[in-house]
Amino acid sequence: MLEDGRYKVLIDPFLTGNGQAAVSADEVKPDFICVTHGHGDHVGDTAAIAKRTGAQVVCSVDLAEGVFAPAGITALAGNLGGTIPMPFGSVKLFQAIHGSGVAGCLSCGFIFRMGGKKIYHAGDTALMTDMNLLADEALDAALLPIGDFFTMGPEDALRAVKMIKPKLTIPMHYNTFPPIVQDPEAFAALVEKAGFRAAALKPGESVEL
Ligand code: NI
Q: Which residues of the chain fall below pLDDT 70?
Protein backbone atom coordinates (compact mmCIF):
# COMPACT_ATOMS: atom_id res chain seq x y z
CA MET A 1 0.00 0.00 0.00
CA LEU A 2 1.23 3.48 -0.94
CA GLU A 3 -0.21 6.50 0.86
CA ASP A 4 0.34 10.22 0.35
CA GLY A 5 -1.86 11.40 3.22
CA ARG A 6 -4.91 11.72 0.96
CA TYR A 7 -4.98 8.73 -1.40
CA LYS A 8 -4.29 5.06 -0.74
CA VAL A 9 -3.03 2.83 -3.54
CA LEU A 10 -3.07 -0.90 -2.93
CA ILE A 11 -0.89 -3.10 -5.14
CA ASP A 12 -1.54 -6.81 -5.80
CA PRO A 13 -3.69 -7.45 -2.69
CA PHE A 14 -3.09 -11.14 -1.97
CA LEU A 15 -4.52 -11.26 1.56
CA THR A 16 -6.99 -14.16 1.81
CA GLY A 17 -4.98 -17.40 1.99
CA ASN A 18 -1.72 -15.54 2.58
CA GLY A 19 -0.24 -16.66 5.87
CA GLN A 20 2.00 -13.57 5.90
CA ALA A 21 -0.83 -11.02 5.59
CA ALA A 22 -1.06 -8.51 8.46
CA VAL A 23 -4.59 -7.40 7.52
CA SER A 24 -7.66 -9.07 6.08
CA ALA A 25 -9.35 -8.12 2.82
CA ASP A 26 -12.28 -6.71 4.88
CA GLU A 27 -10.04 -4.18 6.64
CA VAL A 28 -8.37 -2.34 3.79
CA LYS A 29 -9.88 0.85 2.34
CA PRO A 30 -7.89 1.82 -0.77
CA ASP A 31 -8.88 4.43 -3.34
CA PHE A 32 -7.08 2.53 -6.10
CA ILE A 33 -5.93 -1.06 -6.61
CA CYS A 34 -3.11 -1.60 -9.11
CA VAL A 35 -2.66 -5.17 -10.34
CA THR A 36 0.49 -6.31 -12.14
CA HIS A 37 -0.75 -9.58 -13.65
CA GLY A 38 -3.31 -12.33 -13.46
CA HIS A 39 -1.71 -14.88 -11.15
CA GLY A 40 -3.80 -15.70 -8.09
CA ASP A 41 -1.24 -14.39 -5.59
CA HIS A 42 -1.46 -10.95 -7.26
CA VAL A 43 -5.10 -10.56 -8.30
CA GLY A 44 -5.92 -11.97 -4.87
CA ASP A 45 -8.80 -10.10 -3.24
CA THR A 46 -8.94 -7.28 -5.80
CA ALA A 47 -12.52 -7.92 -6.95
CA ALA A 48 -13.95 -8.23 -3.43
CA ILE A 49 -12.13 -5.11 -2.18
CA ALA A 50 -13.10 -3.09 -5.25
CA LYS A 51 -16.76 -4.06 -4.89
CA ARG A 52 -16.83 -3.30 -1.15
CA THR A 53 -14.94 0.01 -1.25
CA GLY A 54 -15.56 1.29 -4.78
CA ALA A 55 -11.80 1.47 -5.32
CA GLN A 56 -10.75 1.95 -8.94
CA VAL A 57 -8.81 -1.01 -10.35
CA VAL A 58 -5.82 -0.06 -12.54
CA CYS A 59 -4.13 -2.62 -14.80
CA SER A 60 -3.28 -3.55 -18.39
CA VAL A 61 -5.99 -3.67 -21.05
CA ASP A 62 -5.68 -7.43 -21.41
CA LEU A 63 -5.95 -8.05 -17.68
CA ALA A 64 -8.98 -5.75 -17.54
CA GLU A 65 -10.68 -7.71 -20.30
CA GLY A 66 -9.54 -11.18 -19.24
CA VAL A 67 -9.98 -11.01 -15.46
CA PHE A 68 -11.88 -7.96 -14.27
CA ALA A 69 -14.60 -7.49 -16.90
CA PRO A 70 -15.88 -11.06 -16.30
CA ALA A 71 -16.00 -10.20 -12.57
CA GLY A 72 -18.18 -7.18 -13.33
CA ILE A 73 -15.41 -4.65 -12.69
CA THR A 74 -14.52 -1.87 -15.14
CA ALA A 75 -10.80 -1.27 -14.72
CA LEU A 76 -8.85 1.83 -15.71
CA ALA A 77 -6.62 0.12 -18.23
CA GLY A 78 -3.47 1.22 -19.99
CA ASN A 79 -0.67 -0.68 -21.62
CA LEU A 80 3.07 -1.12 -21.32
CA GLY A 81 5.07 2.08 -21.68
CA GLY A 82 2.01 4.22 -21.07
CA THR A 83 1.55 6.65 -18.20
CA ILE A 84 -1.94 7.02 -16.72
CA PRO A 85 -2.65 10.38 -15.02
CA MET A 86 -4.08 9.82 -11.55
CA PRO A 87 -5.49 12.20 -8.89
CA PHE A 88 -2.37 11.52 -6.78
CA GLY A 89 0.09 11.90 -9.69
CA SER A 90 0.49 9.13 -12.24
CA VAL A 91 1.21 5.48 -12.77
CA LYS A 92 3.30 4.15 -15.67
CA LEU A 93 3.11 0.52 -16.75
CA PHE A 94 6.67 -0.76 -17.04
CA GLN A 95 7.54 -4.05 -18.65
CA ALA A 96 8.20 -7.20 -16.65
CA ILE A 97 9.43 -10.59 -17.79
CA HIS A 98 6.94 -13.02 -16.35
CA GLY A 99 3.84 -15.00 -17.36
CA SER A 100 0.58 -13.16 -16.84
CA GLY A 101 -1.89 -15.94 -16.13
CA VAL A 102 -4.10 -14.63 -18.97
CA ALA A 103 -3.67 -15.68 -22.61
CA GLY A 104 -2.22 -12.85 -24.67
CA CYS A 105 -1.63 -10.63 -21.66
CA LEU A 106 1.74 -9.26 -20.58
CA SER A 107 2.78 -8.93 -16.97
CA CYS A 108 3.88 -5.47 -15.82
CA GLY A 109 5.43 -3.43 -13.07
CA PHE A 110 4.46 0.13 -12.12
CA ILE A 111 6.25 3.45 -11.72
CA PHE A 112 4.23 5.67 -9.41
CA ARG A 113 4.52 9.43 -9.07
CA MET A 114 2.94 10.24 -5.76
CA GLY A 115 3.52 12.85 -3.08
CA GLY A 116 6.51 14.25 -4.96
CA LYS A 117 8.18 10.83 -4.93
CA LYS A 118 8.80 8.25 -7.62
CA ILE A 119 8.40 4.59 -6.72
CA TYR A 120 8.97 1.48 -8.84
CA HIS A 121 7.04 -1.69 -8.04
CA ALA A 122 8.57 -4.40 -10.22
CA GLY A 123 5.70 -6.88 -9.99
CA ASP A 124 6.85 -10.42 -10.71
CA THR A 125 9.84 -10.33 -13.00
CA ALA A 126 13.09 -11.91 -13.99
CA LEU A 127 16.21 -9.77 -14.08
CA MET A 128 16.21 -7.80 -17.34
CA THR A 129 18.56 -5.30 -18.93
CA ASP A 130 15.56 -2.96 -19.37
CA MET A 131 16.09 -2.15 -15.68
CA ASN A 132 19.03 -0.02 -16.86
CA LEU A 133 16.40 2.41 -18.17
CA LEU A 134 15.21 2.96 -14.63
CA ALA A 135 18.50 4.56 -13.54
CA ASP A 136 17.36 7.71 -15.39
CA GLU A 137 14.17 7.81 -13.34
CA ALA A 138 15.99 8.78 -10.11
CA LEU A 139 13.68 6.51 -8.15
CA ASP A 140 13.07 7.23 -4.49
CA ALA A 141 12.23 3.58 -3.89
CA ALA A 142 12.23 0.27 -5.75
CA LEU A 143 10.24 -2.75 -4.60
CA LEU A 144 11.94 -5.82 -6.02
CA PRO A 145 11.03 -9.52 -5.84
CA ILE A 146 13.64 -11.72 -4.14
CA GLY A 147 11.73 -15.00 -3.79
CA ASP A 148 13.52 -16.88 -6.58
CA PHE A 149 11.82 -19.92 -8.20
CA PHE A 150 9.04 -17.80 -9.81
CA THR A 151 10.91 -14.44 -10.02
CA MET A 152 14.36 -12.97 -9.45
CA GLY A 153 16.17 -14.35 -6.45
CA PRO A 154 18.40 -12.31 -4.11
CA GLU A 155 21.49 -12.43 -6.35
CA ASP A 156 19.66 -11.16 -9.43
CA ALA A 157 17.74 -8.63 -7.32
CA LEU A 158 21.10 -7.24 -6.16
CA ARG A 159 22.17 -6.96 -9.81
CA ALA A 160 18.88 -5.13 -10.43
CA VAL A 161 19.65 -2.66 -7.63
CA LYS A 162 23.01 -1.91 -9.24
CA MET A 163 21.25 -1.16 -12.54
CA ILE A 164 18.32 0.82 -11.10
CA LYS A 165 20.23 2.74 -8.41
CA PRO A 166 17.15 3.59 -6.30
CA LYS A 167 17.48 5.68 -3.15
CA LEU A 168 15.84 2.83 -1.22
CA THR A 169 15.28 -0.84 -2.05
CA ILE A 170 12.45 -2.81 -0.46
CA PRO A 171 12.43 -6.59 -1.03
CA MET A 172 9.10 -8.33 -1.70
CA HIS A 173 7.59 -11.57 -3.00
CA TYR A 174 9.05 -14.00 -0.44
CA ASN A 175 7.92 -16.36 2.33
CA THR A 176 4.33 -16.77 1.13
CA PHE A 177 5.02 -20.24 -0.29
CA PRO A 178 7.68 -22.85 0.60
CA PRO A 179 9.62 -22.51 -2.71
CA ILE A 180 10.13 -18.76 -2.16
CA VAL A 181 11.35 -18.72 1.45
CA GLN A 182 14.11 -16.11 1.72
CA ASP A 183 15.88 -14.01 4.34
CA PRO A 184 14.99 -10.38 3.53
CA GLU A 185 17.36 -9.05 6.20
CA ALA A 186 20.27 -10.90 4.58
CA PHE A 187 19.28 -9.42 1.22
CA ALA A 188 19.06 -5.93 2.71
CA ALA A 189 22.55 -6.42 4.17
CA LEU A 190 23.88 -7.38 0.72
CA VAL A 191 22.34 -4.25 -0.79
CA GLU A 192 23.81 -2.03 1.93
CA LYS A 193 27.22 -3.68 1.46
CA ALA A 194 27.02 -2.74 -2.22
CA GLY A 195 26.56 0.91 -1.21
CA PHE A 196 22.77 1.26 -1.49
CA ARG A 197 20.05 1.68 1.14
CA ALA A 198 17.57 -1.10 1.80
CA ALA A 199 14.69 -1.72 4.19
CA ALA A 200 13.23 -5.17 4.80
CA LEU A 201 9.70 -4.43 6.01
CA LYS A 202 7.82 -6.90 8.17
CA PRO A 203 4.14 -7.51 7.31
CA GLY A 204 2.22 -4.44 8.52
CA GLU A 205 5.33 -2.25 8.79
CA SER A 206 5.71 0.98 6.85
CA VAL A 207 8.49 3.33 5.82
CA GLU A 208 8.29 7.06 5.03
CA LEU A 209 10.14 8.25 1.94
NI1 NI B 1 3.22 -14.31 -11.00
A: none
